């Protein structure tokens, strides 16, 4: 009995463009919903949210600034194409999150619903970005590189960072806020850990 092997191919430029665009919009929508409920999350986006809440600074600007050192790591680890994709993704997430403000108003949402919708939207978005060799910047860049090089699942790497971030959040936010936020972050990491495997999917 013969087994037909599918020869892997790289994504085309258009495939990468639409994948990064859709993934970025999904992630931005998740962050917008999360912020509307006053919740936080993990990763660099979560760090930016915590800082923006505590200092009353603009989330998108903080998110962009926090990613600058990780862009250097992205270039050193995987080269110019990976760097460009991550810059585009981070910029898109920041811009879309701001662009939604005048057009999408969430006056009331239960934090549990916000956490679940965020987790699914951002988790699927991040999964799509990973599959097009991009990420949400920051710790997700590190997670993606470590998974590719050492086989450690990206979702678990992010979860380790998130545990440390939430340990800090417990000092500044009510227990209920942190608890619901943990639910959303757990959903994101579960989706990535379960579905993103290098041996299942060859990225560009």
Descriptive terms for the model:
single chain, 204 residues, mainly alpha, 73% helix, disordered N terminus, transmembrane
Give a written overview of the molecule.
With 204 residues, the chain is mostly helical. It has one domain. Helix content is 73%, strand content 0%. It has 7 helices and no strands. The longest helix has 41 residues. The radius of gyration is 17 Å and the shape is globular.
Strand count, sense and barrel status of the largest sheet are: none
How many beta-strand segments? 0
Q: Ranges with pLDDT <50 over ≥5 residues?
A: 1-5
Global morphology:
globular
Question: What is the structure about, briefly put?
Answer:
This protein is an all-alpha fold. It has helices at residues 13-36, 43-55, 59-99, 111-131, 139-150, 154-169, 175-195. Helix 1 (13-36) packs across helix 3 (59-99), helix 2 (43-55) packs across helix 3 and helix 2 (43-55) packs parallel to helix 6.
């Amino acid at each position: 009995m013969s087994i037909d092997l599918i020869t892997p191919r790289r994504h085309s430029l258009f495939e990468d463009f639409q994948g990064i665009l859709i993934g970025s919009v999904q992630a931005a929508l998740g962050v917008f919903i999360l912020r509307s409920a006053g919740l936080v999350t993990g990763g660099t986006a979560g760090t930016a949210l915590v800082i923006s809440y505590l200092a009353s600074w603009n989330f998108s600007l903080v998110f962009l600034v926090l990613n600058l050192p990780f862009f250097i790591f992205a270039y050193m680890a995987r080269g110019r194409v990976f760097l460009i994709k991550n810059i585009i993704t981070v910029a898109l997430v920041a811009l879309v999150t701001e662009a939604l403000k005048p057009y999408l108003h969430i006056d009331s949402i239960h934090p549990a619903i916000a956490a679940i919708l965020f987790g699914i939207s951002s988790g699927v978005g991040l999964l799509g970005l990973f599959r097009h060799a991009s990420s949400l910047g920051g710790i997700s860049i590190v997670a993606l590189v470590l998974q590719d090089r050492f086989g450690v699942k990206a979702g678990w790497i992010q979860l380790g960072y998130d545990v440390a971030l939430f340990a800090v959040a417990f000092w500044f936010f009510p227990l209920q806020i942190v608890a619901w936020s943990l639910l959303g972050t757990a959903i994101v990491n579960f989706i990535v850990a379960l579905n993103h495997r290098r041996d299942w999917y060859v990225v560009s």
